[in-house]
Design goal:
This protein has about 425 residues and is an alpha/beta fold. About 30% of the residues lie in helices and about 20% in strands. The strands form five sheets. A six-stranded parallel β-sheet has the order 4-3-5-2-6-9, sandwiched between helices.
């Protein structure tokens, strides 16, 4: 819920959103015009300049670290997501030791397992981890496989209503909060190329006091109205946030979006949960099943553990967990960008390396504007080794930005 609150707050005036003094707006609204024009580094640099004030603020002290790490994730800082998962609001404390994978279950490539299950339903709900771009690395492949199975609708919790407009073509800084992540934005491009109909289903309405399920009920009702009432035979893929993908309500009385959608449509969804079985800053924060599976070489790629009769290892609230490989950095970038997404390591041209201070190198598809979310971007930080760009084959134009303006470029590049 916290991460989703960020998206709602971004759409509100900073003073009204938090009753904060005008001198200290919500951090994601700093340098908003510059960000919307294509320079998220301007917002991030402004956060760093005012960090001491935010950390001392009773309004923002708790939320500021998450927002800062969100932006670092968007800017290609590889360690930011795992660091975020250790923040007090997100840190887990599972039992010690390892728990063996139950007998009869074997790892199956995640996209293959999800596609098999998707063929038996008309509704797939994927619960991502907002702070881990790795949990989005299968989106492109999943969209293609489900398209072949007749899926024509894509809904995402993060989408802004603009994605449903006839003129929408390229993801930009109005398309949604988490689509500022280039990995997510690339999936949106894939969906548009294939012909998916995009659906924004979240709500910023506030429910009655004490009604913790209002948002989820509204999300589900929006999906029914926007998709299944329009196309009764629709096949729908949903990218939801975390536990909103749970089709079995937890014992605390909360009714997650997926559980409500299942009830009001009569469709039994295949629900996937991505956050739990992933790497953390320390082994103590990791699930015992994950410790065992990775220690025994069972997670060489993103996998779902499948048993006989199409059973899966899941959470009890969702059908299946995705187990993610531990991340290795190669030239300053996570290895899953190559192994799971098919991207190529691409050196930053010499003319874009020059300069002092924080700089952001961005790569755009040829023909796309600089206001789009780039295909990839990477932060150049003083004193740290130079990273590479990770790009799929194609033709691009590249630039380097400072906090105030473009400092080098554009440079044309082609990746074979």
């Amino acid at each position: 819920m916290r991460a989703c609150l960020l998206a709602a707050l971004l759409a509100l005036p900073p003073v009204a959103a938090q009753d904060a003094p005008p001198s200290l707006p919500f951090p994601g609204l700093l340098k908003q015009a510059e960000r919307e024009a294509g320079n998220p580094l301007a917002t991030y640099a402004a956060m760093l300049e005012q960090e001491a004030q935010y950390r001392a603020s009773p309004v923002f002290a708790q939320i500021y670290p998450e927002v800062r790490l969100n932006y670092e994730e968007f800017l290609g800082v590889p360690e930011a997501g795992v660091q975020a998962m250790s923040l007090p609001a997100l840190r887990s404390a599972p039992p010690a030791g390892e728990q063996a994978i139950p007998g009869g279950f074997a790892p199956v490539p995640a996209v293959d397992a999800i596609a098999r299950a998707a063929a038996a339903t008309r509704l797939v709900i994927f619960g991502e981890e907002h702070h881990l771009p790795q949990t989005r690395c299968l989106y492109d492949a999943l969209l293609r496989r489900l398209w072949d199975l007749g899926y024509r609708w894509l809904a995402a919790e993060t989408f802004a209503p603009e994605v449903m407009e006839d003129g929408f073509r390229v993801p930009d800084y109005h398309s949604g909060y988490y689509t500022m992540d280039p990995v997510f934005a690339s999936a949106v491009r894939t969906a548009r190329e294939l012909g998916y109909r995009l659906v924004a289903y979240d709500t910023s309405e506030r429910g009655p006091p004490g009604d913790g399920s209002f948002r989820d009920r509204t999300q589900a009702q929006n999906l029914k109205r926007l998709v299944f009432d329009v196309d009764p035979g629709a096949k729908l893929l949903v990218f939801a946030g975390r536990g909103h993908a749970a089709e079995v309500p937890p014992a605390d009385g909360w009714t997650p979006m997926a559980s409500v959608l299942k009830q009001i449509t009569g469709i039994d969804p295949f629900t996937v949960f991505a956050p739990t079985m992933s790497e953390r800053s320390t082994r103590e924060e990791e699930d015992p099943l994950y410790r065992y599976a990775t220690a025994h070489g069972l997670v060489k790629e993103p996998v779902v553990f499948v048993g006989g009769d199409e059973r899966w290892i899941g959470s009890g609230n969702c059908d299946a967990y995705v187990f993610w490989p531990r991340v290795q950095l190669v030239d300053g970038r996570p290895d899953w960008m190559g192994s799971s997404m098919g991207r190529r390591r691409t050196a930053i041209p010499a003319e874009l390396q020059r300069g002092d201070g924080l700089r952001l190198v961005q790569a755009f598809l040829a023909g796309e504007p600089g206001s789009a979310v780039p295909v990839d971007q990477v932060l150049l930080r003083p004193g740290l080794p130079l990273p590479v760009l990770m790009l799929p084959p194609g033709t691009y134009w590249l630039r380097a930005l400072g906090a105030q303006a473009m400092v080098a470029g554009p440079v044309d590049a082609k990746v074979e």
